[in-house]
């Protein structure tokens, strides 16, 4: 979804010999703003290496396992509240200014983690991290969608998820080698660098046109397209934005107008199905899971390998798959195998834990192998499509309101999924949450056929026109 300023190839001839020269600045900009999900990934997966470390380190911390169990729910809860309270921030301050503000809670979170000696400072750290996640989802995908052309957005827009995966890998790698304090000092540099680089990037021309700042929008378009004459782009952008904001854009319009309702249902479904697909729970509990599931390889090494593989697979999908397959097809191809893998893992874990008369010691490789296969298929859709389409689906008139609703649903579902993982493990065994996620993926596979529209290769305006039609076609 691009700002209509970044025309689709059907409207403007972007596919010429100078295409790379025109697109490199968009790619660089997306890379810079992807430092936000990088830090979010670091702070989300922070529990993986440190959950066990903190409870075992009685010299520096006197914290119980029950107290640390709240680490995984505080961050999404804070994200949820942030989405409700600051839902209109990116429209009031602008996409760029909102992203600049994100650096504050991200830096504060690392400072609190470095200074923490009791559980309450760690709780405060996770609150700050959750605030940053809420603000990040409300601004970064929106900004990426508005400054990039369809061809750039389809491939490079997925750097948002790549940044998160890289953060999850790095925190497991560094966290297993360093203390909480040293790790915090290392990674506090990321949001600081992000703040510095972002200062020099333009605001979204889409937002500038919304605010009537046409001269600034023209200047931003020149930077993003690397063209001297952008009058045609600006004219199209103004027409599209003015049409979209001419809609009343009330909260009721979000549910009453069919195109808005279709987009909202799709975005909420993607967010909730991702949460209950197990992706987030495995991120925050990955080392805990490998520790409880057992295997030939240590939990620390298994977690680091899993997160590293997740990042590599995500990059491969971005480079070779995502813009060659329809969004819906990617998601279905992702969810169905993930369901099968998790159900098979649940059967093994149940037998290993409760059917002790059956010798399955020769299958100790199953937890790691199963998680690897799960991640391979998750990379095709579950891991990237929800965030990518969040920046594509909504009209300018309801974009911030719709994003707020999606983030509220995402925050609730993530909090519930993470909490259920721990509760089901304590009540029934490690197999139980795995079985739950497998069943949820099976249901999501079926619903995907009916709820996900196609947005690949379309401009923001083309997506809106498609949503208004009787059927959404590629």
UniProtKB/TrEMBL annotation:
It is found in: Cell membrane. Gene3D superfamilies: MFS general substrate transporter like domains. GO terms for cellular component: plasma membrane. It holds the Pfam family Sugar_tr. Its main location: membrane. It comes from Phaedon cochleariae. InterPro entries: MFS_dom, MFS_sugar_transport-like, MFS_trans_sf, MFS_Trehalose_Transporter, Sugar_transporter_CS. The chain crosses the membrane at residues 27-48, 68-87, 99-117, 123-144, 156-176, 182-201, 263-285, 305-323, 330-351, 371-390, 402-424, 430-452. This is Major facilitator superfamily (MFS) profile domain-containing protein. Keywords: Cell membrane, Membrane, Sugar transport, Transmembrane, Transmembrane helix, Transport. Residues 29-456 form the Major facilitator superfamily (MFS) profile domain. It is a multi-pass membrane protein. GO terms for molecular function: transmembrane transporter activity. PROSITE patterns: MFS, SUGAR_TRANSPORT_1.
